[in-house]
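TEACHING EXERCISE
Course module: macromolecular assemblies
Task: Read the component lines below, then compare them to the predicted structure of the full complex.
Student: A.B.
Group: 4
Components provided:
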Amino acid sequence: MIVKDWCSYCGECAGICPKNIIEVKEYSLVFDEKECSRCEICVKACPLNALEME
Amino acid sequence: MIETDVLVIGAGPAGSSAAKHAAKGGAKVILIDKKSEIGSPKRCAEGISNNGLENLGITPNPKYIAKKIDGCRLVSPSGTDVWLTTEEIELPETGYTLERKVFDKFMAMDAAREGAEIKIKTLAKSLKKEGDSVILTCEHMGESFEIKAKIIIAADGPESHVSRWAGLKNVTKAKNMESGIQFEMCGVEFERENIIEFYFGSCAPGGYAWIFPKDDDIANVGLAVIAEDTDKSAYEHLKEFVANCPATQNAQAVELNVGGDPVGGLVKDLYGDNILVCGDAAGQVNPLTGGGIISGMNGGMYAGQVAARSIEEGDYSSKFLKEYEEIVDKELGKEMHKYLKVKEYALSLPDDELDSIADAFQDMDFEKISTTEIVKNLVKVSPKALLKLGKLI
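Instructor-supplied answer key:
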């Protein structure tokens, strides 16, 4: 997952991730890429369009 | 290893309320939050009803009150507006806007003064069960450590990792998560002072737009959308709204806020062995308005009280903690179910129907300002609303 530098770390993506694999730190997002099913629900929900699937 | 009776994860209003009441009940409490500054950045429009804090036993402090609110204005897609203010009616249910960055810290301080230990910049990483306790692995500035607790209270907001780590079936579907976005702006031109404004229709598909005043020309201007209902991002919707709304055309943004708001009602599992869930993590949010400060703090209070009793009794089983669900269902659940039905109906209305309802509302007499009162009058003017909502009122 590409996290754009305008991400505000609000955590909405983590909340709707069906696999609960997005860790939201204060100033970074960590995806467990191995577990990601590439459903892109997080990409769609981001209020700032800050996520892009690689 | 650090050991405690109750470990609260998340120092928003719900978590701080839980920590305060668990400590008040005699439990040893640790409250952790991943941020450097509790309450910042805000993820909220900051509106709150008048009696909400008093009912929680909190005397509002002027240091976190931004502005007193005397009523609201509902604006339909064509611009027809309905004013529900002290000028129109006699017995308003009023409120105020908060300064969340101050408010959240004050709530955490209340918890600390009751005896809770606070650890900031401490991130929850994972959870495991061990005997009759749970162990949370945390991270603080690169250092990993464990906290062993008899009960954890998950107040980790819309992310809601913790309850899912505990195996509770709490998944927020995309259709129930509002994508919220907001500018704090100056130079906002209000038609009347001290009024919160709501804008409905295609400006915010799946949600609504709002203007909540915080000072003479300062306001939170935001909206929430359901991502599935629109091809544009929440940010694009906000830019359009601000450019088109007469009140904000000349306003300047000084802050951008974003965040998810779970509006699908209470989560399925509010408790389990050694765990209680409260606040946004538990879906303790009014599904119609998206407001969740007071409901989350009430949920937190019930969770803290039940946790303290559980510590006193030495029983941390889900069987004992079930009492929490019973209290939440009684105190919050019934109302939330009603608002969920109203929301489903409201979101089914196209722009022209919203306009005709606004037209009909112009001649209505409202007795007070509340969501229930608005729904009561909605049923009077719309046969479809009567059909769908009549039995709720």
